[in-house]
Specification:
With 445 residues, the chain is mainly α. Among the domains are: 88 residues, Tetratricopeptide repeat domain (Serine Threonine Protein Phosphatase 5, Tetratricopeptide repeat, Alpha Horseshoe); 85 residues, Tetratricopeptide repeat domain (Serine Threonine Protein Phosphatase 5, Tetratricopeptide repeat, Alpha Horseshoe); 38 residues. It has 19 helices and 5 strands. The strands form 2 sheets. The chain has a 3-stranded antiparallel β-sheet with strand order 4-3-5, with no helix packed on it. A hairpin with a 2-residue loop joins strand 1 and strand 2. Helix 3 runs antiparallel to helix 4, helix 7 packs antiparallel against helix 8 and helix 11 runs antiparallel to helix 12. The longest helix has 56 residues. The radius of gyration is 46 Å and the shape is elongated. The N and C termini lie far apart (95 Å). It binds zinc ion. The site of zinc ion (ZN) has 9 residues, from loops.
Amino acid sequence: MNRKRLYRDGSVFVLRLLAYAALVALLVTGAVWLADHPGTVMVEWLGWHLETPVPLALAGLILLTGALLFLWRLLAGLVRLPGHWRDGLRGRRLRRGYQALSDGLAAAAGGDRREATRLAGKARKLLADPALTSFLSAQSAQLAGDADTARDHFKAMLERPETAALGLRGLLKQALERGDDTAAADLAARARLISPGDGWLLDLQYRLAVKAGHWSDVQALITEARRHKTISPQEARRRTALLLTARAEAAAADGAWDEVRSLGKKAMAADKGLTAAALLLARAYQERQRPRPAAAVLEQAWSHNPAPALAAAYAALKPEDEPLPRLRRLEKLVAGKPNVPESHLVLAEAALSAKLWGQARKHLLEAVSLRPSQTPYRLLAQLERQEYKNEDAARAWEAKRAEAQPDPTWVCADCGKTSPDWHWACPHCGALDRLVSGTPKLTAE
Ligand SMILES: [Zn+2]
């Protein structure tokens, strides 16, 4: 290989040497020939007279050719010059356009509508690329409250792959603002094609699917969110439990109690403290005349999450019960979590109905010591009147009640408003799974 190259390089060198020698020989021969054949060149032209020896004329000719070549190159360079000049101008124009674009975006982010609009116009003119300047134009139109113009600009951004995602997002936010859930779901699905693992988009799609009651989509979106790790395994389980509960609720509305039972069981397996699932499952058993598993479900749910609605459902399992047997049954319900205010209040109310004053007082005082809210004080006042007809003592408890904190209820962690029952979506702001048991904030309204 190397040897081959060596031979080739060697032969090239030899060839060049030969050519050089031939050239020198030719020149020498030419010079000798010229010396042997002396003469002059004579030119007569337009009254000019030139007479010169042949070697000098030849040298002059060579010089003239060189000068002409040089002149030619110079002219060609000059002809190309406006192109370079134009390119320079265009570069400056683009630079100024990008400057206007970035300044405009900053102005729009700062909420300066007039400056944003001015710079948007400038960037549009300098860059002449709608896909590029549309975002700023859309932003300034939005600041000016011109939704239609903003929409046109966002649509222009869809033309270019680099800006399509941003354009879709702009259209999506507009759809959400005007409450067009169908359009929003469609745009979110298109945006997900560009960025499949986007947590915000996944969450939005999930919320829209829940709101629309598209349960199979909800399930698919929980799986997707888990696959892209935008939600924790616990959150995925919780969402699955809520989905199963919603499906059970729909089945209950159709009276399909076997389906309610199967879905309710799965929901409770995914989240044992889910009151809504427990109530549905207990109801499904009760509808099939099976009070025993119904009671067991409510007892289990109480031990995880003692919600008053469970006690009401438990008492309703045997509505014909006399007060005393009912008290005995409720003691069984709260056995899994006896030392919480809710358990003491359930037993206190049942004891009051059964006229077991001593037991009622014991549970009410326990409840007050655990959580001094309005209900135990109200029941204590009732007890004083029923047991001893002691109006003064009753008034004293009522005075305390007036100053006590409200009883816990369902409070939305997002909007802070309260709801008497638990719902997947907050009835006030629509936030999903944000209702938590708590004390409502006392606001001066
Ligand atoms: Zn809310």
